[in-house]
Amino acid sequence: MTPWLLATGDFTTLGGMDRANHALASYLARRGHPLHLVAHRIDPGLASMPGVAGHLVPRPFGAHLAGAPLLAREAAREARALGTSARVLMNGGNGAIGMPTWIHYLHAAYAPEAGGSLRARASSLASRRYYLARERAALRAAPLVLCNSERTARDVEEHYGVQPARLRVIYYGCDPRMFAAIAADERTAARAALGIDPGRLAAVFVGALGDRRKGFDVLFTAWQALARDPGWDVDLLVAGEGAEASAWRERVRAAGLDRCVRLLGFRRDVQSVLGAADVLVHAARYEAYGLGVHEALCRGIPAIVTAAAGVTERYPKSLSSLIVPSPPQPDAFVSALRAWRSHADEWRSRTGTVAAALRARSWDDMATEIASAVGAA
Q1: What does the alpha-carbon distance between residue 43 and residue 15 come to, in Å, rounded to a whole number?
Q2: What is the structure's pLDDT at 312?
Q3: Which of 10, 109, 206, 265 has the fewest C-beta atoms lying within 10 Å of its C-beta?
């Protein structure tokens, strides 16, 4: 079997791009390919699969920027050792230059507004400079650039002049068992586990609170306006952590919204949180794809999302009014949420059709397409 080399920060099931990389690696290992993984973290179950060789690279002091050059160096070393007989796929600039690369997030497409301490903001600026330089070198030299959406492909072409002949859009898949349609008994149990009042509905936000890219600040302002209405019977659950999480907890308390806004912290059981939800809200300023939105739809949950997200390419016309113009504005989300609440049952029914279509595309379907594209590069 043909050996493969994959390099990225993490092969885990904890985040969007990490889950996609894990899915590809698992697919290749299950098909018997000798598989070399260069990463900072590798899920133990994946690392123990037959034929998998993990090449772990440290993150000194836990710093991503300190670990990134070490990972790129190790990826280049392994690529040379395996030679031309191996198939190689990097993640953006996170690996060897001149190899096929997979873009989950394009640094050139969004300049983050970092929060937190002065040190955290300085680190974010230095990281951005490094990643932009690596990204530019990798994309200009890559014989094949895989993109997770048409939006990402357009961004790659616009920012780096990569010709369409070297671009290939391959959408993410999903785990149809984990993100199945929500059964009535599961919904009851999930709501009880989260302590949701039986007389209220639940909106969910899933995303990191380390910068403003995911748009929680926009949603927070919108929720302040909605909560002034005594008839607003929807609670907001926030699943995510980050540098600003503590500050957001204080802002929620100071605004008197702790009765209807709950920060749940980092959750490994996002599928269970979604099981309790009536709607997902994603106010992102930039989103190359948006796996959290995809997974909510798979569960049959309507998702209100900005047009900036690549996942909106998967929305049928019947759900198009859930797409809010970009850049996100609080008033637009207030209007969208009120419109959803007026017909909440109808929106859940409409979402059922797209949910079935998205669940029909598995992670293995995605991985099959990637393997074929890299093999032909």
Answers
A1: 12
A2: 98
A3: 265
